[in-house]
């Protein structure tokens, strides 16, 4: 269950734009309902603000996930993921990861030095500080997906092709890959939205396993916002559906459901 909530929180930030570098702006906010069958298991939110780093205006993304009701009684989740990244290059300056997942906790901050390709990770729980070498264009877990929002020529991908990004997570660099599966008109609470469908493919035995079935639906408009995330389980599936939004950069292209 812990991994499922991590996956959902991770992928609610996924969105793409192939034409303009303005798929989003500060003030954007999303809310997602996480449900297992007919059970409302929890919610996740993602918002984008403007902040200052070294007197420079940057983006500050804040993602939160939490269980509710009986789900919280059986498995308490309170997750907070944040990222400060450059408004032009999308390179991250700092990330925050503060989580409590059924008693499993982490409290970390990472500080990127993009000039020297280093990151300093401060672990407040274990009172440690470590420095790691990173690749030139590395992203953190949240900035990765804002980076992908403006990734060029996403709309020209053929079915079966993938996009790969270096992502720093848990003291390692992962080759985060998204495979394009095709398009579908998806019914949502806001109407029927043309969508692009992706699936993560990551090295087996690392953060994810290739045999895990996780699917992501992204609106096929200029916003490219996440509409649904579905993780297939041995019994049933768990989903996160877009439940609310505000501050979109572009019109949300949906048709009323029949």
Structure description:
The relative contact order is 0.19. The chain has 258 residues and is mainly β. It has 3 helices and 14 strands. A hairpin with a 4-residue loop joins strand 7 and strand 8.
Topology:
Blueprint: H1 2-11, E1 29-36, E2 39-53, E3 56-67, H2 69-74, E4 77-86, E5 92-101, E6 104-113, E7 118-123, E8 128-133, H3 143-149, E9 162-169, E10 172-188, E11 191-201, E12 213-219, E13 226-232, E14 237-246
Strand order within the widest beta sheet: 8-7-6-5-4-3-2-1-14-13-12-11-10-9
Beta-strand share of residues: over 45%
Shape: globular
Largest sheet, strands/sense/barrel? 14 strands, antiparallel
Average pLDDT rating: 85
Helix/strand structural class: mainly beta
H-E order: HEEEHEEEEEHEEEEEE
**Radius of gyration (Å):** 18 Å
* Residue runs with pLDDT of under 50 for 5 or more positions: 13-21, 204-209
- Number of contiguous helices: 3
